[in-house]
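Q: Hi! Curious about what Pilin looks like structurally. Here's the sequence.
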Amino acid sequence: MKANMQKGFTLIELMIVVAIIGILAAIALPAYQDYTVRAKVGEAIIAGSAAKGLMSEAFQTDGVAGMTAAAVAFNASPIAERTSKYVSNVAIAEASPWTITVTLAATQANGIPNVLNGQTLTYSPNVANAVPTAASVGAIDWACGSATTATATGRGLGNVAQGTLLAKYAPSECR
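A: Let's find out. The predicted structure is below.
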């Protein structure tokens, strides 16, 4: 006599597979959503890098007077030149400590949660781990700040400004 051969999966086996997929999805979706926001915040970092390059070149060319002049010229440029889909403004403090502030634009249309609208990342120039002065010599090292500044402080940078962007959305250098 032939025994009946089982073909396919049992209900229990299928339920176990569905449960495993459900658990993985529950963990992966929030992590993926945070990742997509961090990727969009990456544009804020790029927007800040243009201002950082300007200020670094100004310091190397004409010291702190050059930094002040560059900040004034940058802020005088039309706001449309300093904005994008994810950035509502980039501004530079026109006097010491010349902090660069990048402000996020968060809307339903661009995919960044609305609670992040207006939050900021900051970049602060450091020469020899301090605010640049007329006597400073060397290259600028930038301290990045979000709602926390542990990384910049841990590197021994003295000129550190805190932004408002939640640390989980900031790059690791800005946490």
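A: A fun detail: The mean pLDDT is 93.
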